[in-house]
Design brief:
By secondary structure, this protein is α/β, with parallel strands linked by helices. Helix content is 30%, strand content 16%. The strands form two sheets. Strands 3-2-1-4 form a four-stranded mixed β-sheet, covered by helices on one side. Strands 5-6 form a two-stranded parallel ribbon. A hairpin with a 2-residue loop joins strand 1 and strand 2. The chain is globular and about 45 Å long. The mean pLDDT is 91.
């Protein structure tokens, strides 16, 4: 596994990939943050395309990602993650909406769990999924980050400067 860091407007993200594709985007904090294992090799070269697309996303010029993804998860998780990628830029939908889209209308809680296990946030846009009432719900990078990403996509400006808390 190769790893590098990416200095984004929402903090320093850790990227991890192997020969299959991008496997992780890791937030610096939040309940899913973790230190990279010692056997992961730090190398920037495999991430050139990912970094370019993230730069474009944060600049507001990219709405869809084309990088090769290789998330590890169950068949159900993979189905949910694929459905997340179909949620349009700057749009939101609920866990129940995703459950209906994948043909499991009573599985909104399971969809929530799969959404929370998404190893490639931002590119697999789990931040676009909200509660049934429209309220923001859990996010690996924290609700402030989720708010920031949604505001960014809607062109509403910066809610918070993560580089100068």
């Amino acid at each position: 596994m190769f790893t590098t860091t990416y200095d984004s407007p929402i903090g320093i993200l850790t990227l991890a990939c192997d020969s299959e594709g991008l496997r992780h985007i890791i937030f610096p904090g939040g309940d899913r943050a973790f230190d990279t294992p010692p056997d992961w090799e730090s190398r920037a070269e495999p991430f050139t395309h990912v970094v370019t697309e993230l730069d474009e996303y944060f600049a507001g010029t990219r709405r869809e990602f084309t990088v090769t993804l290789a998330p590890t998860g169950t068949e159900f998780q993979q189905t949910v993650w694929n459905a997340l990628r179909a949620v349009e830029y700057a749009e939101t939908c609920s866990y129940g909406d995703i459950a209906k889209r994948i043909g499991k209308p009573k599985a909104s809680r399971a969809v929530g769990a799969a959404n929370g296990a998404n190893p490639i946030p931002i590119i697999v846009p789990c931040h676009r999924i909200v509660g049934a009432s429209g309220q923001l719900t859990g996010f690996a990078g924290g609700l402030l980050t989720k708010s920031w990403l949604l505001a960014h996509e809607r062109g509403e400006g910066q809610l918070f400067d993560f580089t100068n808390p």
